[in-house]
């Protein structure tokens, strides 16, 4: 895969103007953007439509966790917007994930990804909600459930990638938030890694955020990330 196509830039902005500025400054360098709940709530679906109209791919990070009928409706709405990826919570179980996958079949380009364990969570956080076992065990458990439900891939930390690739096989998407450039702070992510290490371990895509979007020159930083992915 072309390294440029493996990099998803997270538009974790609280307003449309800031997001548009990032996209404008990156220009043709970046092909793929993540839109999460903050920007979607602030700017509405028009921000997604605008990106698609510009020829960009969009990862709509909804983390859906609702009754199956509602999840299916949200997936169909995402597909109608033209997005390439949408997320559901693996913790929602087989019913939710299967409903999402079935709804996605109306949209051949749409991929359903299951969130395993949020990259800010530690073993103690799982224990707080009654999940026994370590984070890495829970990640693999939910990944197996997602694969059985027909999901196209999973969301997990860079530190989970190697084990996941062995579990999910060569065809699954493994998208990794929580990556940071060497020397950068991993922010709230507790299980970080570099983009290069994540791809080397078998990630299909890496999600980069502030390292690029808050750089003095986002395009130069993006090119640096892309160069780091070339063996």
From TrEMBL:
Q: Which reaction does it catalyse?
A: orotidine 5'-phosphate + H(+) = UMP + CO2
Write out the pathway annotation from the protein's UniProt entry.
Pyrimidine metabolism; UMP biosynthesis via de novo pathway; UMP from orotate: step 2/2
Check the record and name the CDD domains matching this protein. Answer: OMP_decarboxylase_like
Membrane among the record's keywords?
no
- Fetch the Gene3D superfamilies from UniProt: Aldolase class I (3.20.20.70)
Q: Name one GO biological process term.
A: 'de novo' UMP biosynthetic process
Main enzyme class: lyase
| Catalytic residues identified in the record | 63 (proton donor)
Q: Where does substrate bind?
A: 12, 34, 119, 209-210
Residues annotated as coiled-coil are none
Keywords annotated in UniProt: Decarboxylase, Lyase, Pyrimidine biosynthesis
Gene Ontology cellular-component annotations:
cytosol
**A GO molecular-function descriptor:** orotidine-5'-phosphate decarboxylase activity
User: Per its UniProt record, what InterPro entries does this chain match?
Assistant: Aldolase_TIM, OMPdecase, OMPdecase_bac, OMPdeCOase_dom, RibuloseP-bd_barrel
Domain Orotidine 5'-phosphate decarboxylase span(s) in chain numbering: 6-225
Keyword Nuclease attributed? no
The EC number of this protein is: 4.1.1.23
Q: What does this protein do?
A: Catalyzes the decarboxylation of orotidine 5'-monophosphate (OMP) to uridine 5'-monophosphate (UMP).
Query: How is the subunit organization of this protein annotated in UniProt?
Result: Homodimer.
Family statement: Belongs to the OMP decarboxylase family. Type 1 subfamily.
Q: What is this protein called?
A: Orotidine 5'-phosphate decarboxylase
| Organism lineage string | Bacteria, Bacillati, Actinomycetota, Actinomycetes, Kitasatosporales
**Chain's gene name:** pyrF
